[in-house]
Amino acid sequence: MTEQQIQTDIKTYLEYKGFFLFNIHQQGKYCFRGISDLIAVKDGITIFVEVKTPTGKLRPEQISFMEQIQNHGAKYIIARSLDDMREAVK
Question: Does residue 85 have a pLDDT over 90?
């Protein structure tokens, strides 16, 4: 599966589960390098979701963003499949 196919499956699932979610599309000089692909919110909890294929690797700026999010107490998930996302929102 491509990253886009995985992301589509994850978005469909999160919407079904009642999450408010949105994609992050960046371009231009005000981009935040490394920000996650998706942000999902439900019941006061925010989840940052980086979608990767099973062999995909995080870039250094993505690792930095993940560490900043986790250091501030938020949830960050690397989802390589719909099953990863299901497990994360249990």
Answer: yes
pLDDT at 30 over 80: no
Q: What is the pTM of this model?
A: 0.89
Q: Specify the DSSP element, H or E, that contains 11.
A: helix 3-16
Q: What's the Cα-to-Cα distance from 15 to each of 41, 56, 70, 73, 90, rounded to whole Å?
A: 10, 25, 24, 24, 15
With beta carbons less than 8 A apart as the criterion, state whether 38 and 52 touch.
no
CA-based nearest residue to 87, from 20, 21, 13, 2: 13
Task: Give the SS3 label for residue 31.
Answer: coil
